[in-house]
Amino acid sequence: MSISLEKLNSELEGELYYREWDPKHHTMLVAYSTDASVYQEKPLAVAIPYTKQDLITLIRFADENKITLIPRTAGTSLAGQVVGKGIVVDISRFFNKILEVNVEEGWARVQPGVIRDDLNAYLKPYGLMFGPETSTASRAMIGGMIGNNSSGLHSIVWGDTRANLLEAHVLLNDASEVVFKALEPQEYFAKLAQKDREGEIYRQLNDLLTNKENIDIINSGYPKKDITRRNTGYALDFLVDTTKPFNLCNLLAGSEGTLGIVTEAKIKLRPLPPKEIGLLCVHFSDMVECMHGNVVALQHKPEASELVDKYILDFTVGHPTYQYNRFFIEGDPQALLIVEFRADKEEEIVCKAEALKQDLISKGLGYAYPLVMGVQQTNLVWDVRKAGLGLIRNLPGDEQPVNLIEDCAVSPKDLPAYVADVQQILKEEGVHASYYAHAGAGELHIEPFINLKTAEGKRKFRSILEKTTDLVLKYNGSLSGEHGDGRLRGEFIGKVLGEKVYALLQEVKNVFDPKGIFNANKIVNTPPMDSSLRYDKVIDGKEIQTYFDFTKDESILRLTEKCSGSGDCRKTEITGGTMCPSFMATRNEKDTTRARANMLRQFLTNSTKENRFDHEELKEVMDLCLSCKGCKTECPSSVDVAKMKAEFLQHYYDANGAPFRAKVIANFTKSQQLGAMVAPVYNFFAQNKLTSSLIKSVLGFAQDRSLPEVSGTTLRSWIKKQKTQSSNGKFIFSVMSLPIITTPTSVRPRISCLLP
Is the pLDDT assigned to residue 749 strictly greater than 50? Predict the structure, then answer.
């Protein structure tokens, strides 16, 4: 295989990482072995394609060598969609262009690596936006949103990705590119007549979907029609709906990269929402009571109705960032229902909120009803909700929140009974959980606290999902709402939709991808849901000695494990904030806070060396960390990589000695003092193109940066030259500006002196 990969590398314009023995390559392989899920598996290779031709080359290689390709954008999947033993194809770096915006017709053409929030920043001057809004919208990309059929907190009004996907350019398993779009009857029959791979797919699907028995199986097996979060398996229920034009985009959305690779998407845009916004933050003393309140809230037609529970609220106390978002909280609620209203005038919002408040009071629901108004203040409230996953990772100990039943959806009317049933299951298992997110859409992110490092924890992991699937069946709900099936829930699709429906899903996969070259073993034919977990290996328990005190974090290993993989560190400068500046510059996954924490976790867990920090891969991934401390405040889990980098460097230098570059930088002041003694000579070598290039090569500095010049006049010698005498004979120094380094041509320090 290594010979084949060498050949593939020579054929790609982009990058390919596959050599286990090469620290740079191995760093990439380890960095891409996880996403935001509980799974971990090192890929065969990581490809960074530059062009569409690279994607075609990869597809042909996969077909010839029976290898699967794993398309990946931001890597924030919670069900292990982009983890596997294949070639990870990261299209986030070079497929990130906004190709066209049609303001009049309300659509845009974009590449799959375009970030949702960055796109909306571009569209704002046009008064338009792309609706689906995940909590990861600052880094979630259109390609990944199509793969998971992402929804977000405003989905009850703005819809999911499927509802907003008009067309898609897709590379099929024979590397041909096709366009999926809504087809009029004559266009559909023309597709059936085509003598190519596309025509073959349409004919096979037509045979499958026009079969009366199959139609009945699909209609009876899929969730209730009023459940909008319906993302279990492939969306065959949309394809058999003859009231709408046939559009394979409906099948593509939610297919998790298992049917083809998207190269371009035409998406629907909507006008910006009304400028005035208000959040009625209803406080409840009981979770089930809160779900009854949600049913009432939906009758008032809000823009969103979102849940935040006590666990999340408690973790905002003392948090460097989120402690300032607690201004609206009264008392100690067990649950908050955040209900959003928008209008052109504030009075309309106040009126709507008051009507809901009085309705709730009349039904004895809730105990406090503060109304938060204005974009600035409401953003602070929403930030708490969006940071939920990261915030609850601050729980001490090995018992941590697990993405498990966080994506199950039922009708909002069934939520009170469903939540009560889930609480009973968790009580039987002796497990607590956090409840938050999309109450308005009937999908709560319920995350049980489980220790996956133990056999008992792994047993509970499986048992809780098995029991919850019984509830999904009971309420005719959806096993997956927006996070997808992946390798987590795929095992239970047959149980929820019926084995006959599951057999149809397998047929669909076979129609598009008979050799399994697109993200194999996701949705269908998945491995057991409790295999390839992050903590499958038994940790030896040996204490890791550190120079810094990590007592507050329990240990340096526990601090690394706090990283949920949610990828807040992958946002760009367009979104704002500090974290993570090196990633903003390189757009390289290995330069994220996430990659640094995950790499350190894996080596501290798995290394057999006495000094577990002594690995070139860790040096590679830590090298561009600027120690800016942005992660300590902006990461919801407060994963302080700057502190961990300093700890790593000391151990690494203990084993290998401090490099020459580090010593030069550490003694920068002394070197500049010496240089000032022979300033003309020093400056000649520093600025001469040939010698400066040589110096930078020796020191390991980038060739594009300049070396500092020095001045032959020091501050002390300059003061001595001043002969101005004060009237009273005293020294008076007024320091206006003191540049750290001056040049012969720069302005001297502006110092006024009175000398005797």
Answer: no
Pick from 126, 132, 142, 139: which is nearest to 575 by CA? 139
pLDDT per residue as tens digits for the range 30-42: 999 999 999 999 9
CA-wise closest residue to 134 among 489, 520, 407: 407
DSSP 246: B
The DSSP line for 538-553 is PP-------SS--GGG
Q: What is the CA radius of gyration of the chain?
A: 29
Residue 753: φ, ψ to 5°: -130, 145
Cβ atoms of 603 and 620 closer than 8 Å: no
The pTM of this model reads 0.91
Question: Half-sphere exposure of residue 543, counting CA atoms within 13 Å on the CB side?
Answer: 7
**Alpha carbon distance 511, 509 (integer Å):** 5
Paired strand residues for 752? 734
In total, the chain counts a number of residues equal to 756
Q: What is the three-class DSSP state of 142?
A: helix
C-alpha to C-alpha distance for 455 and 691, rounded to whole angstroms: 62
Instruction: Kindly tell me the burial class for residue 162, based on how many C-beta atoms sit within 10 Å of its own C-beta (0-12, 13-18, 19 or more).
Output: buried
**Amino acid identity for residue 271 in this structure:** P
Instruction: List the one residue out of 370, 293, 360 whose CA is nearest residue 331.
Output: 370
Tokens (6 digits) for 658: 């401090």
Structure tokens at 707: 């070396």
Q: pLDDT of 554-569, one tens digit each? A: 999 999 999 989 999 9
